């Protein structure tokens, strides 16, 4: 018992030091979504952040080649949204992009994401905003359904592995 108290103090001391130092670290990073793909996404985000340096607040459509659904956002906002989409689905950039040409519409998930984006907006504007027995605003994001999975479960317990259901690929 006598030993327990000093030991506890040491443990508390170490853990508060660790949390203080990780807090200071967090302040220096731009956005830190925590998931296993974060490091890989950060690598590509950094490449793009360097390339748009000085143009962070310019409209994305004036700087990037293939902006449709995110017209009106700044380049920096588009990159943050990219990170949040990756986080919501638990994926990295290459799930939706050809890494040699980020403007390419060839990857299947690229245009699927545009449809999902429109669907989410429609849900929010036309359905959720009109729910009468709820306190507004009621809002859904990609993560509300995806919860870090590529495909949200829809029929019973969690789908296997990382959320991909066995199904024919089109
Ligand atoms: C869930 C799919 C998805 C993920 C994950 C994703 N993107 Fe995107 N990205 C898109 C879509 C869709 C667009 C087009 C947006 C539009 O139409 O306005 C886009 C557009 C872009 C553009 C503009 C390209 C151009 O020249 O027009 C860049 C740059 C970009 N993404 C970078 C990234 C980076 C970096 C990551 C990883 C951190 C990432 N994206 C993750 C779907 C995704
Ligand atoms: C209302 C629930 C819901 C919301 C909100 C939602 N999704 Fe989805 N998403 C789904 C479902 C369900 C599927 C699986 C469709 C299927 O059967 O292939 C899916 C599939 C996808 C796929 C294809 C994944 C694959 O492995 O084929 C992408 C990419 C995607 N969503 C991106 C997004 C993005 C980005 C957002 C936010 C802008 C979003 N979704 C918001 C329900 C949702």
From TrEMBL:
Pfam family of the protein (one): CytoC_RC
InterPro entries, sorted: Multihaem_cyt_PRC_cyt_su-like (IPR023119), Multihaem_cyt_sf (IPR036280), Photosyn_RC_cyt_c-su (IPR003158)
SUPFAM superfamilies for the chain: Multiheme cytochromes
Domain of life: Bacteria
Region annotation (Disordered) ranges: 149-170
Keyword line: Electron transport, Heme, Iron, Metal-binding, Photosynthesis, Transport
Protein role: The reaction center of purple bacteria contains a tightly bound cytochrome molecule which re-reduces the photo oxidized primary electron donor.
Protein name: Photosynthetic reaction center cytochrome c subunit
Organism: Emticicia soli
